[in-house]
Amino acid sequence: MAVAQSRGFEIYALSVDYGQRHRVELLRAERIASAAKVARHAIVKVDLRAIGGSALTADIAVPRDRPDELIAEMIPVTYVPARNTILLGLALGFAETVEAFEIFIGANALDYSGYPDCRPAFLAEFERLANAATKAAVEGRGRSRIEAPLLSMTKAEIIREGLRLGLDYSMTFSCYDPDASGRACGACDSCRLRLRGFEQAGVKDPAAYRSPDPIRQ
Prior knowledge:
- The protein is mainly alpha-helical.
- It has one domain (2-216): Rossmann fold (3-Layer(aba) Sandwich).
- It has helices at 2-6, 24-35, 68-73, 83-97, 120-133, 135-138, 155-164, 189-201; strands at 12-17, 40-45, 102-104, 145-147.
- A two-stranded parallel sheet has the order 1-2. A two-stranded parallel ribbon has the order 3-4.
- Helix 2 (24-35) links the parallel strand 1 and strand 2 (40-45).
- The longest helix has 15 residues, at 83-97.
- The mean pLDDT is 93.
């Protein structure tokens, strides 16, 4: 969002309540959207718990303290089947209703958990689909572009860029398995990648963690 604003775009933000166990991210998204004074922030509910198949939507334990080489090489059970396809499909519909043709997604294919729907090939194919599926594209009124400005950046580079753009990271949330008060676990893949990024960027992570020193868990 910060990158899109820096490029002069008016922001229509979309969050999806898909039954994720880390629903606190929706509250954080509302805070960020409000602080950024976006034109509109829509929250859509699609309950993927009916499908299951993921530690984020079913009664499956979230992996903790996985070695870095496994995070990079093995797709974990936190993968939600077809999640980014569903999220981008909703974003595409929302974008068409407000006549927006630049769809930004924060996918990253460098420091990530190996999710197949975060890869450049997936995003390129979805852009092709978008321009075969919408009335606006078929009628020649506008072609959709899928923008993923963080795709090839390390977590440290992302953090530095966010700071350059004035992003308040204390409002952001990454954890897959927070406690009831919204504190991050510090041990899931998402926390480990975030913590490593802040460490490599030489910046203290302002997020609240259960452990006072999660980087050494």
